[in-house]
Amino acid sequence: MYIRPLLMGSGPVLGVAPASEYTFITYASPVGNYHKGLLNLIVEEKFRRAIPGGTGGVKAVTNYAIIYKPIAEAKAKGFTDVLFLNAEKYIEEVSTSNIFLVKGNEISTPPTSGTILPGITRKSIIEITHVLGYQVKERAIPVEELFDAEEVFCTGTAVGVNSVNSITYQDERIEYKRGAGTVGQKLYEMVTGIQTGRIEDKMGWTVELD
N or C: which end of the chain has fewer CB within 10 A? Predict the structure, then answer.
């Protein structure tokens, strides 16, 4: 069940100014996994999803306008989605989700420093990985580290936890572990298990409604 709150300006204002009135709505819809089939990404080197001082750290519609053209171009080449970088060639996030890299017992993810959305699924995964004994680091990740990672997975409200099959950077394709026994699969099973009640919630996330 995907629950999305939405706040939009609805006052009679045509100028460049805050709306005089706002409408708040919440909609809910059953959803499946956002990505169908294997998740094959391509690194986007021309477009930047967000910049420091902008709105990249909030759930604003303006953050999605920039991604449509790169995604369309990527899909025309046979890729599933796009991995965005910042101006210094550090990994930011996939168009629809946060990203994690796994190497040994260490799991790394870019920090939420204003250009990356601090997703609740991202936060939940970080908490679970600590419980499972992994070393989790929120740090700037150079794009070159994609070549050294053993496993990569994405997280998001609609995406859930989805292992990445491959990432292509400068015409070089890197493939990653996925499936049974991987970190991504363990986390997927734990998160969905808590969500559906199959696994006892020791994290204190679920609330029983009367």
Answer: C
CB atoms within 10 A of CB 17: 9
3 state DSSP class of 125? helix
Q: Give start and end residues of each alpha helix (H) in 77-182.
A: 120-131
pLDDT band (50, 70, 90) for residue 167: very high
From-to residues of CATH 3.20.10.10 in the chain: 34-196
Those residues whose C-beta lies under 8 Å from the C-beta of residue 198, and which sit 6 or more positions away, are 192
Q: Which residue numbers are catalytic?
A: 59
CATH number of 34-196: 3.20.10.10
Q: Whose CA is closest to 133, among 90, 197, 183, 177?
A: 183
Q: Spell 161-172 as b/e; 16+ CB within 10 A means b.
A: bbbbbbbbbeee
Q: Which residue has the tokens 């990445």?
A: 164
Identity at 144, one-letter amino acid code:
E
Alpha-carbon gap, residue 71 to 73, rounded angstroms: 5
Alpha-carbon distances, residue 102 vs 139, 182, 209 (angstroms): 13, 10, 37
**Whether the Cβ atoms of residue 44 and residue 82 lie closer than 8 Å to each other:** yes
- DSSP state, residue 90: B
